[in-house]
Fold each of these.
Amino acid sequence: MNGAGQSRLVVEDLRVAFDTRQGTVHAVDGVSFDVAAGRTLAIVGESGSGKTVAAMTAMGLTRGARTRIGGRVLLDGEDLLTAPAERLQELRGDAIAMVFQDPLSALHPLLRVGAQVAEAVRAHRDVSRASARARALELLEQVALPDARRRLDAYPHELSGGMRQRVTIAMALANEPQVLLADEPTTALDVTIQAQILALLRRLRDELGMAMVLITHDLGVAAETADEIAVMYAGRIVERAPAGELLTAPQHPYTWGLLRSMPRLDAPVGAELVSIPGRPPSLVHPPSGCRFHPRCPHVRNRHREVDPPLATTAAGAGHEVACLLPEAERRALWARLGAGAVR
Amino acid sequence: MTPVVEVEQIVMRYPAARGVGLRRRHLADVVAVDGVSLAVEEGESLGIVGETGSGKSTLARIMLNLLEPTSGVVRYRGEEVTHVRGAQLQALRRERQLVFQDPSGSLNPRRTVGASLSDPFAIHGLLPDRAERGRRVAELLEQVGLEPGHASRYPHELSGGMRQRVGIARAIALGPRLLIADEPVSALDVSIQAQILTLLRELRRELGLTLVLIAHDLAVVRHMCDRVAVMHAGRLVETGTVEDVYRAPRAAYTRELLAAVPRMPQSSSSSST
């Protein structure tokens, strides 16, 4: 069990830009976060907010001639961004692993799942085929794949979506990574299966003391799983706080928008949804000033020119927000808006 | 009052097989819908919820005569329409329309939005005058929150939310009385979902539509519907008003489904964690 409190993964001022024919896409633009052993950070954002690119870059999966990457990604102090490809090969699937949204495309369609899990073991451990297979069975039992012994010899297409996702999680856990990046691990699954997979991830995080980064568009999934939530918008983190604090006392107008546009089971019947007007901005030519200003109902003239940094709030305890409204006003606004959203 | 659409004892079976050629073996049939009876009343908004493979989309397609059931009866305004064909079916299409989940898959990528929206009129021989048809297309675009200028755009030039608006415009083009929306927002981002749900609610009010909403998201159905039907493994396990079913679900499966929805902490103005 790893000691808690120590940051396993530290991301500092991460920048990722892709050169395209339409111009340079600034997908991630100065993002910093850290996750300690046994803790979960949820990165919440909509399509194109940069959350997946940030995670893939940390894994070294976005390297290429047309990609420009800046900043640092420290795994136990070692910078993954400058690590040579061979070193990344060693670390990926061992110290750091990733679970993807679509388990069907993450699995080889023509190989039996037991063999795929065993391969994940043998890629990093010098063990015999037989003991790798034994370990594969152990892993599939650990992720609670029903009837695991028989399913070692199943092909991916013979399993349901939830079972396939359990297999990819088993592969990611094969070598007990210190850091697990899970990119929308339940988005393709039904709600009852989603609940099972989230419970599984929480249990494994606690058992193995992993630092987990959960990438999701769903605030409900973040609420169920994370200790801390970071909200991304247009390549930046616009708000970051302990999960309960972010969901009950958010301070960024975009976070308000996300919360108020979400239908909830505990909202009064007949309540109106409040949608965020417009749509996410272009990352080739992001808006001047505050990037959210074209969609913000509380915009002032100054906000079109001044780009707010992510700054600590008086709420303290790690609550940071990038907004130009005075904090007293933000609190007063949410007191009114939040009360309208949920009673 | 006579229901708008009524289905009785609907069964839909698909033959299943394994292997190819001489090694082909027939397996037990897949029963997608297994004896479902359900009535949709005039003007109401009915949600059908269930997980993947519960048969909810199959049932919706049977309600619209897009699929013919293995057995059972489909009635439209009291009249049996289970096996209608030809002109009678075409006339029914004007009354009942479908909004698809994936707007990019249901729009022809090589035709402009305007051309796609003109199709319903061409197919049904309505508005033969070009200028008049153009005016009606512009009107439809405005009705769904787009601009007349969008008629000359191609689907790839629009965002997912805008494409779904086009999908809705096409569905209401012929002035249907019943709209069935099959997961209309599940492919969209949260902030865009709210825009589309609000649009559907407004259109329902303005046009007095009867709405059947197929969804896996229980919160979306609660937000949009008066009544809800819960499907599981091809069967209807519970129906009732949204208020009753969500407050006091009777079927074990409904309880399981509701319990699986992620819970959010209650909002408050003061930080209390």
Amino acid sequence: MEISLTVNGEARTLDVPDNTLLVDIIREHLGLTGTHVGCDTSQCGACTVHMNGAAIKSCAVLAGQADGAEVTTIEGIGTPDALHPMQAAFRECHALQCGFCTPGMIMRAIDLVENAAELDGQAVREGLEGNLCRCTGYQNIVKAVLTAAESA
Amino acid sequence: MSETGIGASVRRKEDVRFITGNGRYTDDINQPGQTYAVFLRSPYARAKVGEIDASGALALDGVISVLTGADMAADGLGDIPCGWLVKQKDGSDMVSAPHPPLAHSVVNYVGEPYGIVIAETLAAAREGAELVMADFDELEAVVDLGGATGADQIHEGVPGNLAYDWELGEKADTEAALAAAAHVTRVDLSNNRLIPNAMEPRAALGVYDAATEDHTLYTTSQNPHLERLILSAFVQVAPEHKLRVVAPDVGGGFGSKIFVYAEETAVIWAARKVGRPVKWTADRSESFLADAHGRDHLTHAELGMDADGRFLALKVKTTANLGAYLSTFGSSVPTYLYGTLLAGQYATPNIHVEVEGVYTNTCPVDAYRGAGRPEATYVVERIVETAARELGKDPAELRRLNMIKPDQFPYETPVALVYDIGDYEASLDKALELVDYAGFAARRAASEAEGKKRGIGFACYIEACGLAPSQLAIQLGAGVGLYESGEIRVNPTGNVTVFTGSHSHGQGHETTFAQVVSDKFGIPFEDVEVVHGDTGRVEFGLGTYGSRSLAVGGSALIGAAEKLIAKGKKIAAHMLEADPEAVEFADGDFVVRDSNQSLSFGEVAFAAYVPTNYPTDLEPGFSEKAFYDPENFTYPAGTHIAEVEVDVATGVVKLVNFVAVDDFGHVINPMIVDGQVHGGVAQGAGQALLEHGIYDEYGQLVTGSYMDYCMPRADDVPDFTVDTTVTPCTHNPLGVKGCGEAGAIGSPAAIMNAVTDAVGDNTVSMPATPEKVWRALQG
């Protein structure tokens, strides 16, 4: 099927099999490998991106559902020279080790800070419940999200 | 201390690429003409493999080839070897069952690969794999660990499914001391099977160049040189000089990416067979089935004490599940990494341990964060806590009474180790203060007022890290040395490229090693680049496991740096017309003693490459390498204290407070060390409360996804309080001990001591799920 979507501000039109997942469009068709695949049951959150302004797991979205959508990936929120405040907070707070869950975690955290009424440690922990990290024990991720929330 | 030198919490160099999506993991790499592989995996725990009919798959559009274990055997590829040969009680060798990379006559666990489908697209490879028809003759599976030695024989030549029957320590003395003890505490413990679950699934991309016969394997490895060595020398995929193994960014390992697996072996072999690059990336379901699992012990232990509670003897008998085959280091984990740690922090004079390593029809079991040491700590610290309860003594004070004292070092244990240094009471005291031990009774009362039960538990652990020395390890059965290599190339402009045989997959070596080297040379941190993970760039290395990277790999870099400084002094002496003995190196300058003459590090480096005014008897160039072989293990130790609250209505255990005070020796980057402890404690909390790899009676893995295997999530754990005490390691130049595993070693015992304290039932086993705890509360 042919789909059109906007990815990181750029309009893209692609011809893909109907059963293609958004994460495969992002990684395989568009070569944006910052978005990762960590499981096959939509449980780990490594593939989290923003679609139409909300954090979603891109392994649970089919090509047809992404048609017409506006998608932002980790590559679209900041650059090494101009980091997004959440990216900067992750570095400052040592909120990542191996880095594999990090893009999904950052995308989820940005949504959390933008949309939560009030954030404390417990709310951040509950808000990140759909994103697995095996390295950090979450402590510094929570710290980073609260740090970014304060500066937002 | 400089802002970027040793002891500073420098923000990590590697982070910028990870937070911007520019990391380069194996699955991010693609090659022109690339094909995709899907493995054929056994649906049975134990079966004879009959005819494999691939005609349906081969007829499918896009399928290029279907290769089987028989094809691999016909090509003469060897078995995957076990890298540590354990000697049994009677002096005979352990029995290592043949482990072909792709099974061809029998399969011995669910998920064992027996073939590979290669196609133009991943979708075609998946569909093709569904169309391969294989005949299996199912056999009775051996699954129950406790009954494995009396069950059907899995492997030819392995009666009783016993890989080895091993012991350490003096049996007669231990039994005599137990018989004479005023009190004997007995426990039966299980150490639950864990599935490592690094967030990046394993992956491999094999590339073969027919014109040069060069093989390149990109793969998720913690030790690419060891991978190359085993694939060349044993499996014989390709000669070592024609095989390059690259482990690019690797998304966590925790031990599971140390080992040589079937998949990467098959991928590089298949790339040559089909003449095109072959790529495989595991689904998480495959990771559950086929990444080496961890732990899985059954243990009976007895601790004898005198009337005052002084430990007289510890007797331990353990059955360790090794799975269907001996994985790369699977044999060493329940023996040399376990039995040797059973003295813990205590001056117990008599210790004897027996371990039966048994085969079962389950995924192979090997090192997982801590590897043997969490199991040893669990035995020692659970039985000590139990003894305190039986004797009516304060668990902290019973430990204190029995701890090895600072003036007793070096201390030789009854289980073959010599601890070089430690101050165990210092960690205990700091932890007691941080947890507010005095206030526990009031907190317990407050919990009870809310209808909840509160418990506190201790673990005073010790571990042996920086595995060493090579000669001793090889005498004890290790198939490789345990040194590490380091090379420092100073470029003509004075900046530095560091090559290390260690591998970083979350540990932050690109930062800490740069701190060490920049500090040593007095040059800017930004001027040091660390290279690792590529056999084409780094001479040799043994990789990262056992919290060894800084203690062994960092020490190798110090060795190389010392050689450079010695050479630099000769160059500077020549240029400054001084006696080489009079030249000192300090703060980045070569200085002639008692003079105002000096040359900077950069000036000397430049002179070494542009030797106009240069000693005639000295080679040009400013690059040195060193191999460092430790003379002893390092012995990180500390006290972990857990507090839990139990909801009596639901049995839900909440970890409400956790304090870890660890002695890692000198710390290079406190921010990174704290992060390592956080992560380790979360994994230990997972083992104690959530995680369990479970096979049913037929050998089917019933915890094969994140829906069934309970990983710790952000709201399952609290903030941990972490701190350190310092006794510097006495035998490496940095005085460091290693920090990667401590969190996972101390925490399961501390948490389970807290859970059993709260519940009032010492038999609750890991993981302490709501169901188990609720049943225990019903009495």
